[in-house]
Amino acid sequence: MKSAQLLLIVFILIRSFNVYSQEIKIDPGSFESSLVSVSIQKVMDKMAMQVIKDPSVNDADEPTFARIKGINFSNGTIEVTVLSRLLKNAPASARGFIGIAFRINSTNSQFECMYIRPTNGRADDQVRRNHSIQYFSFPDYKFDRLRKESPEKYESYADMGLNEWIKLKIEVKGKQAKLFVNESKQPSLIVNDLKLGDSSGAIGLYVDNGTEGYFTDLRIRKD
Fold first, then answer.
1. What is the rounded distance in angstroms from the CA atom of residue 152 to the CA atom of residue 80?
2. Which of 7, 100, 123, 178 is the most exposed place for a label (fewest CB within 10 A)?
3. Is 142 strand, coil or helix?
4. Structural domain 24-222, CATH architecture
5. Distance between CA atoms of 212 and 190, rounded to whole angstroms?
6. For residue 5, is pLDDT > 60?
7. Using DSSP, how many helices (H) and how many strands (E) does the chain show?
8. Across the chain, what does the average pLDDT equal?
C-alpha cells in the first residue's frame, strides 16, 4: 500500500513539473521582435536564434529583445545558453552585451533585465572585470544611473568570454532575482530590490549595441 502511495506522489510531482516547466522552441514564429532582427543560424554545432539590435537605436538599455509569445512570467526560473560575438561595425564601447529581459509589460515600456558583458570577463583591467554582469530596470533605472547611485550593488564578476557558449540561469521570486553563470551553485549576482516590484510579464532574448547574439536551450519554469 505504501509503495502504491509513493508511486502516486512521484507521478503527481512529475505531472506538476511538466505543467510548469516548458522548453521554448527556437523558432522566429515563437517570438515578436522589439527593435531587433532575428533569424535561425547554426553556430558551433548548435541551432540557435540570432538576435541583433536595430542599428537605428543608439541608446543603451532599451527594449531591444525578441519577446516570447504567449508567456506570462512572474516567479520561477529562466535558463538559456548564449553566445556573443562583436559585429564588424561594433563601436569601441561594445562588450558583447547579451542576456534576458523578464516581466516585460504589454507595451514593452517596462521590464527587468540581467545581461552579461563577455569581453569584460577576462580583461586585464580589474574594474572592467567587476562589470561583467549587469542588472537594470527599464525605463527609470538604466546601468549608468545604478552605477552612479549604487556603485557595485547591481554589477558583478564571472568568468566568461566572447565566442563561447555560456549558460545563464535567472531565479526570480517576488522582488528578488539571482543570476547563475555556467551551472555555478552560487549566484554571481543577487538583486533583492527589483525596481518594478513583484510584477509579471513576458520574457525576451536581449542584446545591446554591437552584439551578434545567439540563444539556444531555452527553458522556463514557473513557480
1. 25
2. 7
3. coil
4. Sandwich (2.60)
5. 27
6. no
7. 3, 15
8. 93
